[in-house]
Amino acid sequence: MKAIVKPTPVLNGEINALSSKNYTTRYMLVAALAEGTSTIRYPAHSEDSDAMRRCIRDLGAELIEEGDTMTIRGFGRHPKQVSELNVGNAGAVLRFLMSVAAFCPELTFVNTYPDSLGKRPHDDLITALEQMNVRIEHNNGKLPITIRGGQPKGGRIQVSGNVSSQFLSSLLFMTPLLDEDSEIEVLHDLKSKVVVGQTLEVIRQAGIRIEASDDMMHYRIPGRQRYEAKEYVVQGDYPGSAAILAAAAVTQSDVRVLRLEEESKQGERAVVDVLRAMNVPLTHERGVVHIKGDGSLQAVEFDGDHFTDAVLAMVAAAVFAKGTSRFYNVENLRYKECDRITDYLNELRKAGADIEERQSEIIVHGKPEGVEGGVEIDAHYDHRVIMALTVVGLRSKGGLTIKDAHHVAKSYPHYFEHLKSIGADVQLID
């Protein structure tokens, strides 16, 4: 499917933020790792969360959905013995379930997205699991991956945090269920610490005790714990809302996005601070972000590691800012569904943006007058790239045609519907 995004000078309306994908997948996992029945209210519906639904069912969880409520009867530390799991293109789901698969005698994660998830590395988690009496067969750290476990052991575990925080999160979900106490040491650096904070928040809500050092590089996890069956409420999603907010910022707008908690632990909550620093007129009160934009923005500098999944949308806004913007400490963007630095910036250049890349930086020389557009560009199968490119298309002189736009469903199936509801001129064609 292609999205034809035409210049749209004015946006106006109100949107309910979709439910958080990150919290939904984490709540589903802790519910599956409990032995009773848990309730999740307002779960997200996206390809990623649907992958978690499908996989925990395959592993033996009983899952029922009625309206905005999901109930899950979990399997604890005794998942059903299955030979294969298909996570689709959901990297976080794969990595979280690789540790759960260590409780199975043999389980293979298949490769159905060779041009996206199939290219992403998982060596650091593989190395950590191999320290725990788990044997793993893999394709140079990539899918397909076969886990041979059954008797994982706790103890002292080291895991690198250089590439992704998801490897650490995976171990934090699994180690409380082991017979032994565990100590996890994070090597080198830890990307996206804020997202690890979300993992710890959810695990602790489920009744699990974990001691974390202040710098989040060391963890003590008592063994023989059990996840409690609980009720969880999923909050609104900042990463998905970032592109909507960016679109409002670069146009003449009066847009309200609801269900975005001021005190959320989502790192992408920082988009509100970024847009404020860009001099975008906005308020954030009682869970509502209200932008009354005039399309006039100022350049900014921000550490992107704090709001990884919203960086691309903020770069899109910076394309139209006065001055030079810089987003640094973002190397982990290279290891997502695509290389979100090189691949994304190449498409922005086609649209007429003036952009530079470094190994871990994106530098944007803003064009307040707008960009030419009028070209067809490649989304690289990446939902975040699709949403961010849409923002640029709205402010371009000739619009943009985005190939493979249906991949936005990975996190935000109703993205284009929501954009059109506030006035965006977008046409979808097969």
Strand segment count: 26
Shape: globular
Q: What proportion strand?
A: 25-35%
Mean pLDDT: 97
Percent helix range: 25-40%
Keyword list:
430 residues; alpha/beta; 4-stranded mixed sheet; 26 strands; 27% strand; globular
List the SSEs and their pairings.
Blueprint: E1 2-5, E2 10-16, H1 21-32, E3 37-41, H2 47-58, E4 62-66, E5 69-73, E6 84-85, H3 91-100, E7 107-109, H4 123-130, E8 135-139, E9 142-148, E10 155-161, H5 166-174, E11 182-190, H6 193-205, E12 211-212, E13 218-221, E14 231-233, H7 238-249, E15 252-258, H8 271-277, E16 282-285, E17 288-291, E18 297-298, E19 301-303, H9 311-318, E20 321-322, E21 324-328, H10 342-351, E22 354-357, E23 361-365, E24 375-378, H11 383-395, E25 400-403, H12 415-421, E26 426-429
Parallel strand pairs: 2-15, 3-14, 6-7, 10-11, 18-20, 19-21, 24-25
Antiparallel strand pairs: 1-25, 1-26, 3-5, 4-5, 7-9, 8-9, 11-13, 12-13, 15-17, 16-17, 21-23, 22-23
